Amino acid sequence: MEIPLKSYLTEILDRVRDRDSGAVADYIPELAAADPTPLAVALCTSAGRVYSAGDDEREFSIQSISKSFTYAIALQEVGVEKVLGTVGMEPSGEAFNELSLEGGTHRPVNPMINAGAIAVNQLINGEDSSVDARVTVLLDYFSRLAGRELHIDERITGSELATADRNLSLAHMLRSYGVIAGSAADAVTGYVRQCSVLVTVRDLAVMGATLALGGRQPVTGEQVLDPRVCRQVQAVMASAGMYDGAGRWMASVGIPAKSGVAGGLMGTLPGQLGLATFSPRLDSSGNSVRGAEIFRILSEDMGLHLMSALPSTGSAVRSIRTRGPVTVIRLQGGLGFTGAEDFLAAAAAHELTTVRVVVDMRRVSDIDAFGREMVLEGLRRIRTDGHRIAVIDPDHLLGDRRLGDGTTVEETDEVAVEVADEVK
Ligand code: GLU
């Protein structure tokens, strides 16, 4: 069977292909000369399957999308406290190259605008690092995130550096406030080289999926970043990733995203997917026109808007059956707060009349720390109510089965359950 996703993605590209509004970025000569026609889309699932269509092997410079990753690497390498001492996390609502500094602290307001990104770049590899060494660290991380060796297009770096007055002035300002220590020229060179890394939409989809999946690169399986780091990066992307269009973007598309002036756009759907598009013509906020339209269509068609998550259907309690002296409560699916609450509510509502109560965990696919604690606490209370409790938990989802009072729940074989099964 052929998976119909590629043809679906191709169809979406056909729907937006004719839109020719917007213009390629013109303040960087290399980008001003870019062909505006290429069009591509890719998505990467949590299982590391990548689907793409259009000019999906075409490389382009990552530009501001790099800001998300450099921010992640800074958080990973130097820790949240130091990073937050350097750059804030409020949306600026202003253009990408605005000098938005917080009153009082003089920190750039967030890491997604240039002032913030230049400051964050300087946190990599220590204050005394050379530009080369710093960029090597970044490139190594970017490559691990993409799952292949990435390169810098030095022509783009050179072209941007020749017209970098605005970024240089931002760097001088940051230096005057003591936000960066190195020279303004070095800071901008490091930042512009970071922006000149070449990627394809497939790379960006995988890199985005890594953020969405708590730092585990879904293709190579490598844990590149910590889950907390990814949470922080996506939170800031959600509020500030699309510059002065961030509010409208979150309302209409609802996917944390970051755009770049070369025409790339990357989105992350926490726990699920990485998405990316490429189309060089930009709107007045500096976001790809056709890329944004593709995101809008995907979000609508596939129900990806973060705020439209459907209420989870079905209960985590698969059945409660009683026979003779045993009641078996079978749980199923993922047990986070919601699933564990199903269990507690069902156990509370059901009149447990038997001497023994067995909780069968064999159909539970996943459990988090809070869910585990709730299930164990529920078991303890059932016991306090006068029952003998036991679990069937061959995958050790309940860990060492220790209850809040220090005792341990008995693990039972399946005989008790088979008995109850006969009365289906
Ligand atoms: N290198 C570009 C700049 O600093 C990145 C801007 C962007 O992609 O939005 O001007």
Record the SSE blueprint.
Layout: H1 5-16, H2 29-32, E1 40-45, E2 50-54, E3 60-61, H3 65-78, H4 80-86, H5 114-121, H6 131-146, H7 154-161, H8 165-176, H9 184-195, E4 198-199, H10 201-212, H11 227-240, H12 246-252, E5 257-259, E6 264-269, E7 273-278, H13 289-302, E8 317-323, E9 326-335, H14 337-349, E10 356-367, H15 369-384, E11 388-392, E12 410-411, H16 415-421
Parallel strand pairs: 9-10, 10-11, 11-12
Antiparallel strand pairs: 1-2, 1-7, 3-4, 5-6, 6-7, 8-9
Helix pairs in contact: 3-4, 3-11, 5-8, 5-9, 6-9, 7-9, 8-9, 14-15
The chain binds glutamic acid.
Describe the structure.
Keywords: Acetylation, Hydrolase. It comes from Corynebacterium terpenotabidum Y-11. Residues 316-392 form the STAS domain. Substrate binds at residues 64, 114, 160, 167, 191, 243, 261. It catalyses: L-glutamine + H2O = L-glutamate + NH4(+). α3 packs across α4. The protein is 42% helix and 16% strand. It has two domains: 5-302, 3-Layer(aba) Sandwich (Beta-lactamase); 317-422, Transcription Regulator spoIIAA (2-Layer Sandwich). The strands form three sheets. It has a five-stranded antiparallel sheet with strand order 2-1-7-6-5, sandwiched between helices. It has a five-stranded mixed sheet with strand order 8-9-10-11-12. The protein has 424 residues and is of the alpha/beta class. The protein is elongated, with a radius of gyration of 26 Å. A hairpin with a 3-residue loop joins β6 (264-269) and β7 (273-278). The chain has helices at 5-16, 29-32, 65-78, 80-86, 114-121, 131-146, 154-161, 165-176, 184-195, 201-212, 227-240, 246-252, 289-302, 337-349, 369-384, 415-421, and strands at residues 40-45, 50-54, 60-61, 198-199, 257-259, 264-269, 273-278, 317-323, 326-335, 356-367, 388-392, 410-411. The protein binds glutamic acid (GLU). Glutamic acid is lined by residues 63-64, 96-97, 114, 160, 167, 192, 195, 260-261, 286. Residues 63-64, 96-97, 114, 160, 167, 192, 195, 260-261, 286 line the site of glutamic acid (GLU).
